Input
Amino acid sequence: MNRPKTIYADYQATTPVDPRVYAKMVPYWNESFGNPHSSDHIIGWHAAETVSETASSVAKLIGCDTDEVVFTSGATEANNLALLGLARRAPKSRRRILVSAIEHKCVLASARTLADYEGFGVETIPVDGAGFVDLETLANRIDETVLVVSIMAVNNEIGTIQDIPRISEMVAPHGVLLHCDAAQAPCTVDVSNLATQADLVSLSGHKIYGPQGIGALYIRRDLQDSIEPLIHGGGQQDGLRSGTVPVPLCAGMGAAAELLCAPEAAEERARISRQRDTFIKLLECAPFPTTLNGPTGQLRHAGNVNIQFPGFDAHSLLGALQPRLAASTGSACTSGTPEPSHVLRALGLGSEQADSSIRFSFGRFTTDEEIAEAARLVIQARE
Ligand SMILES: Cc1ncc(COP(=O)(O)O)c(C=O)c1O
Output
């Protein structure tokens, strides 16, 4: 049976694995299958070499050194390791943690755990109507009692790009650490200096055209003793994250990072942001009202469109679009939970506005034809 092709507009939930990335991974499932921690034979040495090459590709992507990269199962684990790990070795004088109101749930839940069970004070920094962190409030809250500030580089629901260099300058004079969840950043901003601005940076393989199930945490070298591991065992990765490093996934993440360091990455971003703007214009011309959530212009993720369809339930609209168009109501990680998006609520939207909002996200393999067809399908489904 010929099924109509589904247009994929959910790149911020997960990206398809780039065929060049896939090709790099294939040999590690069978030919070069070694355990990178098997130090007594050549098959293990080859695997270890691959892991080290990957670490160096990831390091190049964000501007750090290879030995500052710790592989994890994804950005969720990286964010947990950053916050729980730091807190559990924190000096007694620094018991406050600041997070923005629109952090990913895995950051908010880690911080909440520290507040509920480990005696930390967790404070939420508000954002404005477009999702930018209120820098004045942040400045007023930072002092020598704060351990870490956790602010994401790019939001996964509304695409807001934060001013990480400025935030970095604000925290440093107080000896406060900056953790940056950069899972959504590499596809849309130049992150080549991010490790010079933040002390810890979280990344995810499946948001950058690599495989699911791998991520990384950059930990500034001199901070590595200040992190209590979450996973104990054989002491791999300098004891910071025990467990066998998955070589095929690592090879994929390294290849994905390399592609984002290539000169074509900037052109790709420009092309995707043009497509995003075309899609927004097409919906704005529709014979019914729509309202864009989040920022306009340059400070928005190149592929992100988050838009309200007043009076319509987003889930019903998405259902009506099946099987022709795949988009979502926001963070895939909270889909299935029948509560309005905390990100949209933080912008000041009411629950009805939040419940009528859909996130479309475009990426590397989106074509102009798909943009036109996606807009047509949405307009048809809404009418
Ligand atoms: C900003 C952000 N942080 C963290 C995560 C979690 O990443 P992972 O799926 O790699 O655990 C996501 C996934 O949606 C994300 O968008």
Notes: The pocket of pyridoxal-5'-phosphate is lined by residues 74-76, 104, 106, 152, 156, 181, 183-184, 204, 215, 331-333 (CB under 6 Å). The chain has a mean pLDDT of 96. The longest strand covers residues 96-100. The longest helix spans residues 42-62.
